[in-house]
Design goal:
Strand 11 and strand 12 form a beta hairpin. This protein is 59% helix and 17% strand. The strands form 3 sheets. Strands 2-1-5-4-3 form a 5-stranded antiparallel β-sheet, sandwiched between helices. The chain has a 5-stranded mixed β-sheet with strand order 7-9-10-12-11, covered by helices on one side. Helix 1 runs antiparallel to helix 2, helix 6 runs parallel beside helix 11 and helix 9 runs antiparallel to helix 11. The longest helix is centred in the middle third of the chain and has 52 residues. It has 3 domains: 145 residues, Beta-Lactamase (2-Layer Sandwich), CATH 3.30.450; 89 residues, Signal transduction histidine kinase, dimerisation/phosphotransfer (DHp) domain (Helix Hairpins, Orthogonal Bundle), CATH 1.10.287; 149 residues, Histidine kinase-like ATPase, C-terminal domain (Heat Shock Protein 90, 2-Layer Sandwich), CATH 3.30.565.10. By secondary structure, the chain is of the alpha+beta class. It starts with a helix and ends in a 9-residue tail after the last strand. It binds adenosine-5'-diphosphate.
Length: 459
C-alpha cells in the first residue's frame, strides 16, 4: 500500500509538473514570438523607408540580417499578391487580402495578428513611387512544432526517469519501514501473551520507530513490574490472611473441645478470636481503601479545615499509650493553620504517620509532632528516635506492600499498608511529602499542606 501510494504520488507530481510546464512554455513562446515579429517587421520597414533605392545588394543584406537576428521569415509583397522580395513565384493573394482587412480594422500602418492556432504574423504597408507594398513576417509553424516537440521529448525522458527512480526509492523505503514495523508488531504480540523478555529497541532506521520501540520497552518494564507487584501483593495478602484464620480456627476448636465449660479460659480464647477478626477487618479495609483511592472511584471531598485543631485531635487518640505504656508524644503545633483537602483521608495520613513513629521509635519512647507555617505551606513533621531506615529501603517503603523482613513488636496495629495509603492519598492531592532518615538516629516523615486562598470558607 505504502509503495503504491508513493509511486502514484510520484506519477501525479510528474504529470502536474509537465502540464504546468507546457502551459508556461506556450505563454512564453507567444509573447516572445509577438515581440520578435514586431521588432523584425519594424526593422525591415525602417530600412525600406530610409533608403528608397531598394538595390539588390541592400535588400539581400537586410532580409538575410533579419532572418539571422530574429529567426523570422520576412516577405515584401505587392498589392497584386506577387512577391517583390525574395524572388519566389508563390501566390500570396490570400495573405494580401487578410493583411488589407486586418490593417483596415486596426486603422494603423502596422499590426501583429494571430493567423492560425500557433502561428502569428506581422504586417505593415508602405507606398513607394505610387505603388502599395506590404511587409509580411511570419514564424514558420514547422519550427514551432520542432521546438515544442524537442522540449516535450526531453521532458518525457525526464518524467520516465523520475517515475522509475521514485518507484525504486519508495519500494526500498517501504520495504525497510514495513520490515521494522512488522518486527515491532511481532514483538508486541509476544509481550501481549506475557513474554516480558522482549527487547523492542533494535537501532532501526527510522527515528519514530526507535521512539516507539523505546516507549514499548518502557511499557514492558512497567507491566512486568506491575505484574510482579500484583503477584507479591497476592502472596503477602494471602499470607497475612492465613495467620489470623489459622488462629481463629485453632481457638474455636479449643473452645469446642476444651475450654467450653470453663468461663475464664473461654473468655480468653474468644478474645483471641475477636482480636484476630479485627486484624482481618483492618487488613481488608486498608486494601479496599488503597484500591478505591487508586482507581479514582473514591472522589476527593475537598474542603478547607483547621489543620492545627485536627492534628491535635489525632494526637490525642494516642494518649492511652502515654498513660499506659510510658510514651511521650510532644507537640509543637502552630495555631490556626488551615488547608484545603479531603479531611477524612488526611486523617488517615496523620494517623498512619504518627502510628508508625510510635511503633518504630527508640527506647526513649519519644515522638515529636510538629506543624509550622513556612511560606505558602504548613509543614508537618513527625519525628521519632528509632533505628531509622536504610537508604536502600527508603524507596520501597512507600510503594509496595512492604514490611521490613524482621518481625517487630508494635504497640499500634499495622497491616503493612499504612505508608501505601499515605502515598496514595498525598499523590491524589498533589501534596509534597517525604522522609529524612538516619540509621540509628531516627526518622522524620514530612508533608507540606498548601495554605488555602485568602477568601475561603471554613468547614
Ligand atoms: P507497617 O508499619 O504496618 O509495617 P507501613 O506501610 O506503615 O506498614 O510501613 C512500611 C514499612 O516502612 C515498615 O514496615 C517499616 O519497615 C518502615 N517504616 C515506616 N515508618 C517507619 C519509621 N517511623 N521508622 C522506621 N521505619 C519505618
Amino acid at each position: 500500500m505504502l509503495w503504491l501510494g508513493f509511486s502514484l504520488f510520484a506519477v501525479a507530481v510528474v504529470f502536474i509538473f509537465s502540464a504546468v510546464q507546457g502551459v508556461m512554455l506556450y505563454r512564453q513562446y507567444k509573447t516572445r514570438t509577438v515581440s520578435d515579429l514586431r521588432a523584425a517587421g519594424n526593422y525591415v520597414m525602417q530600412e525600406l523607408v530610409s533608403d528608397g533605392e531598394w538595390k539588390e545588394e541592400r535588400l539581400n543584406y537586410v532580409f538575410y540580417d533579419v532572418l539571422h537576428r530574429y529567426s523570422v521569415n520576412v516577405f515584401l509583397l505587392k498589392e497584386d499578391g506577387t512577391c517583390r522580395y525574395p524572388y519566389i513565384s508563390v501566390d500570396f493573394n490570400e495573405e494580401v487580402s487578410v493583411i488589407q482587412e486586418k490593417l483596415r480594422e486596426s486603422g494603423g500602418i502596422s499590426i501583429v495578428y494571430q493567423q492560425e492556432a500557433d502561428v502569428y504574423s506581422y504586417a505593415s504597408s508602405l507606398v513607394r513611387k505610387g505603388e502599395v507594398y506590404y511587409v509580411y513576417a511570419t514564424r514558420s509553424p514547422q519550427s514551432v512544432g520542432m521546438f515544442f516537440g524537442e522540449i516535450q521529448g526531453r521532458s518525457l525522458t525526464v518524467s520516465i526517469l523520475a517515475i522509475v527512480l521514485a518507484f525504486v526509492v519508495s519500494g526500498f523505503i517501504s520495504m525497510l519501514l514495513t520490515k521494522s514495523l512488522t518486527e515491532v508488531t511481532q514483538k508486541a504480540k509476544g509481550l501481549a501473551s506475557g513474554d516480558y523478555d522482549q527487547r523492542f529497541y533494535d537501532g532501526y532506521h527510522f527515528t519514530e520507530i526507535n521512539e516507539l520501540s523505546e516507549t514499548l520497552d518502557f511499557a514492558r518494564e512497567e507491566i512486568s513490574k506491575a505484574d510482579n507487584m500484583q503477584k507479591e501483593l497476592i502472596a503477602n495478602v494471602s499470607h497475612d490472611f492465613k495467620t489470623p484464620l489459622t488462629m481463629i480456627k485453632a481457638y474455636a476448636s479449643m473452645i469446642q473441645e476444651i475450654s467450653g465449660e470453663d468461663p475464664q479460659k473461654r473468655k480468653a480464647h474468644t478474645q483471641v478470636i475477636i482480636d484476630e477478626s479485627d486484624r482481618l477487618t483492618a487488613l481488608v479495609n486498608d486494601i479496599l481503601d488503597i484500591s478505591k483511592i487508586r482507581s479514582g472511584v473514591d472522589e476527593l471531598k475537598k474542603g478547607v479545615f483547621n489543620l492545627s485543631e485536627y492534628l491535635f485531635g489525632v494526637v490525642a487518640k494516642f494518649d492511652y499509650l502515654a498513660e499506659t505504656k510510658g510514651y511521650r508524644l510532644e507537640t509543637e503545633i502552630d495555631d490556626e493553620l488551615y488547608t484545603l483537602a479531603d479531611k477524612e483521608k488526611i486523617g488517615q495520613v496523620l494517623y498512619n504517620l504518627i502510628g508508625n513513629a510510635v511503633n518504630y521509635t527508640g527506647d526513649d519512647k519519644r515522638v515529636t509532632v510538629r506543624l509550622k507555617r513556612s511560606g505558602r505551606v504548613s509543614r508537618l513533621e513527625v519525628v521519632d528516635t528509632g533505628k531509622g531506615i536504610a537508604d536502600e529501603e527508603l524507596a520501597g517503603i512507600w510503594d509496595r506492600y512492604y514490611r521490613s523482613s524482621e518481625t517487630h513488636k508494635r504497640p499500634v496495629k499495622g497491616t503493612g499498608l499504612g505508608l501505601s495509603i499515605v502515598k496514595t492519598v498525598l499523590d491524589r492531592h498533589k501534596f509534597r511529602f517525604g522522609v529524612l532518615s538516619q540509621v540509628g538516629k531516627g526518622s522524620c516523615f514530612w508533608v507540606e499542606f498548601p495554605l488555602p486562598k485568602d477568601d475561603f470558607e471554613v468547614n
